[in-house]
Fold this protein.
Amino acid sequence: MDVPSALTCQYHAALKALREAIDLCPEPMWNDPADGRAPFWRVAYHTLFFTHLYLQRDVDSFAPWARGRPEAQCLDGVPWDNWRPPKPCAPYTRGDILEYWGLCDGMIDSGVAALDLSAPECGFPWYHMPKLEHQINNIRHIQHHAAILSARLRRAAGIDIHWVGRA
Protein backbone atom coordinates (compact mmCIF):
# COMPACT_ATOMS: atom_id res chain seq x y z
CA MET A 1 0.00 0.00 0.00
CA ASP A 2 1.31 3.45 -0.86
CA VAL A 3 1.44 6.33 1.66
CA PRO A 4 -1.48 8.38 0.24
CA SER A 5 -3.74 5.31 0.32
CA ALA A 6 -2.73 4.57 3.91
CA LEU A 7 -3.40 8.18 4.96
CA THR A 8 -6.77 8.16 3.21
CA CYS A 9 -7.76 4.92 4.90
CA GLN A 10 -6.74 6.16 8.35
CA TYR A 11 -8.44 9.54 7.89
CA HIS A 12 -11.70 7.75 7.10
CA ALA A 13 -11.24 5.39 10.07
CA ALA A 14 -10.59 8.24 12.52
CA LEU A 15 -13.57 10.19 11.20
CA LYS A 16 -15.76 7.09 11.44
CA ALA A 17 -14.91 6.80 15.16
CA LEU A 18 -15.74 10.50 15.62
CA ARG A 19 -19.01 9.99 13.72
CA GLU A 20 -20.06 7.15 16.02
CA ALA A 21 -19.45 9.35 19.07
CA ILE A 22 -21.51 12.16 17.52
CA ASP A 23 -24.32 9.77 16.59
CA LEU A 24 -24.50 8.18 20.05
CA CYS A 25 -24.21 11.30 22.18
CA PRO A 26 -27.32 11.61 24.36
CA GLU A 27 -29.05 14.97 23.94
CA PRO A 28 -28.36 16.13 27.54
CA MET A 29 -24.61 15.71 26.94
CA TRP A 30 -24.57 17.66 23.66
CA ASN A 31 -24.24 21.06 25.34
CA ASP A 32 -23.73 20.16 28.99
CA PRO A 33 -22.70 23.27 31.02
CA ALA A 34 -20.52 21.00 33.18
CA ASP A 35 -18.13 20.73 30.21
CA GLY A 36 -17.34 24.46 30.40
CA ARG A 37 -15.88 25.89 27.19
CA ALA A 38 -15.56 22.41 25.67
CA PRO A 39 -19.07 20.97 25.37
CA PHE A 40 -19.49 17.88 23.21
CA TRP A 41 -20.67 19.83 20.14
CA ARG A 42 -17.72 22.22 20.34
CA VAL A 43 -15.13 19.45 20.61
CA ALA A 44 -16.71 17.75 17.57
CA TYR A 45 -16.73 21.03 15.62
CA HIS A 46 -13.15 21.84 16.65
CA THR A 47 -12.02 18.43 15.40
CA LEU A 48 -13.78 18.83 12.06
CA PHE A 49 -12.61 22.42 11.59
CA PHE A 50 -8.95 21.42 11.93
CA THR A 51 -9.44 18.29 9.82
CA HIS A 52 -10.79 20.55 7.08
CA LEU A 53 -8.07 23.19 7.53
CA TYR A 54 -5.12 20.80 7.56
CA LEU A 55 -6.29 18.92 4.48
CA GLN A 56 -5.43 22.06 2.51
CA ARG A 57 -2.13 22.79 0.80
CA ASP A 58 -1.52 25.70 3.18
CA VAL A 59 -3.32 28.21 5.38
CA ASP A 60 -4.03 30.54 2.44
CA SER A 61 -5.81 27.72 0.55
CA PHE A 62 -8.40 27.28 3.29
CA ALA A 63 -11.99 28.28 2.57
CA PRO A 64 -13.99 27.94 5.80
CA TRP A 65 -17.23 25.99 5.92
CA ALA A 66 -20.05 28.28 4.78
CA ARG A 67 -21.84 27.76 8.09
CA GLY A 68 -18.76 28.28 10.26
CA ARG A 69 -19.03 30.65 13.21
CA PRO A 70 -16.16 32.86 14.38
CA GLU A 71 -14.14 31.22 17.15
CA ALA A 72 -16.42 28.17 17.45
CA GLN A 73 -13.34 26.02 16.77
CA CYS A 74 -11.50 27.38 19.83
CA LEU A 75 -11.65 25.23 22.94
CA ASP A 76 -9.33 26.67 25.59
CA GLY A 77 -8.76 30.13 24.24
CA VAL A 78 -8.19 32.23 21.17
CA PRO A 79 -4.48 31.89 20.28
CA TRP A 80 -4.31 34.94 17.99
CA ASP A 81 -5.63 37.16 20.81
CA ASN A 82 -3.50 36.35 23.87
CA TRP A 83 -5.44 33.15 24.59
CA ARG A 84 -8.55 34.98 25.73
CA PRO A 85 -11.64 32.78 26.16
CA PRO A 86 -13.56 32.26 22.91
CA LYS A 87 -16.68 34.33 22.45
CA PRO A 88 -19.84 32.41 23.25
CA CYS A 89 -21.78 31.21 20.26
CA ALA A 90 -24.97 29.26 19.76
CA PRO A 91 -24.29 25.54 19.77
CA TYR A 92 -24.37 23.64 16.52
CA THR A 93 -27.04 20.97 16.34
CA ARG A 94 -26.15 17.34 15.78
CA GLY A 95 -27.49 17.77 12.23
CA ASP A 96 -25.16 20.72 11.66
CA ILE A 97 -22.15 18.77 12.90
CA LEU A 98 -23.08 15.72 10.82
CA GLU A 99 -23.37 17.94 7.76
CA TYR A 100 -19.86 19.27 8.39
CA TRP A 101 -18.66 15.73 9.10
CA GLY A 102 -19.96 14.67 5.67
CA LEU A 103 -18.17 17.55 3.99
CA CYS A 104 -14.88 16.66 5.72
CA ASP A 105 -15.18 12.92 5.07
CA GLY A 106 -16.08 13.65 1.45
CA MET A 107 -12.93 15.70 0.89
CA ILE A 108 -10.45 13.14 2.25
CA ASP A 109 -9.69 11.22 -0.96
CA SER A 110 -9.24 14.25 -3.21
CA GLY A 111 -7.63 16.30 -0.43
CA VAL A 112 -4.91 13.76 0.30
CA ALA A 113 -4.36 13.14 -3.43
CA ALA A 114 -3.77 16.88 -3.98
CA LEU A 115 -1.13 17.23 -1.26
CA ASP A 116 2.60 17.25 -1.91
CA LEU A 117 3.50 14.77 0.82
CA SER A 118 7.21 15.26 0.11
CA ALA A 119 7.06 19.00 0.91
CA PRO A 120 9.59 19.93 3.62
CA GLU A 121 7.11 22.39 5.21
CA CYS A 122 3.47 21.73 6.03
CA GLY A 123 2.12 25.14 4.97
CA PHE A 124 0.94 26.21 8.43
CA PRO A 125 3.47 28.52 10.09
CA TRP A 126 2.53 27.48 13.62
CA TYR A 127 3.65 23.91 12.80
CA HIS A 128 7.29 23.25 11.98
CA MET A 129 7.22 19.86 10.29
CA PRO A 130 7.11 18.31 6.83
CA LYS A 131 3.77 17.83 5.08
CA LEU A 132 3.60 14.05 5.56
CA GLU A 133 4.28 14.27 9.29
CA HIS A 134 1.65 17.01 9.57
CA GLN A 135 -0.93 14.75 7.95
CA ILE A 136 -0.16 12.01 10.47
CA ASN A 137 -0.45 14.64 13.20
CA ASN A 138 -3.87 15.64 11.85
CA ILE A 139 -5.12 12.05 11.96
CA ARG A 140 -3.81 11.75 15.53
CA HIS A 141 -5.73 14.95 16.38
CA ILE A 142 -8.98 13.46 15.10
CA GLN A 143 -8.40 10.27 17.07
CA HIS A 144 -7.43 12.21 20.20
CA HIS A 145 -10.72 14.07 20.28
CA ALA A 146 -12.76 11.03 19.24
CA ALA A 147 -11.21 9.23 22.23
CA ILE A 148 -12.01 12.11 24.59
CA LEU A 149 -15.64 12.14 23.45
CA SER A 150 -15.76 8.35 23.67
CA ALA A 151 -14.50 8.47 27.26
CA ARG A 152 -17.16 11.05 28.15
CA LEU A 153 -19.84 8.80 26.69
CA ARG A 154 -18.56 5.75 28.52
CA ARG A 155 -18.22 7.53 31.86
CA ALA A 156 -21.49 9.48 31.80
CA ALA A 157 -23.81 7.20 29.86
CA GLY A 158 -22.21 3.74 29.68
CA ILE A 159 -21.93 4.04 25.89
CA ASP A 160 -18.98 2.36 24.18
CA ILE A 161 -17.57 3.48 20.84
CA HIS A 162 -16.18 0.75 18.63
CA TRP A 163 -12.54 0.70 17.54
CA VAL A 164 -12.19 1.43 13.82
CA GLY A 165 -8.89 -0.01 12.60
CA ARG A 166 -9.34 0.98 8.99
CA ALA A 167 -12.10 2.21 6.75
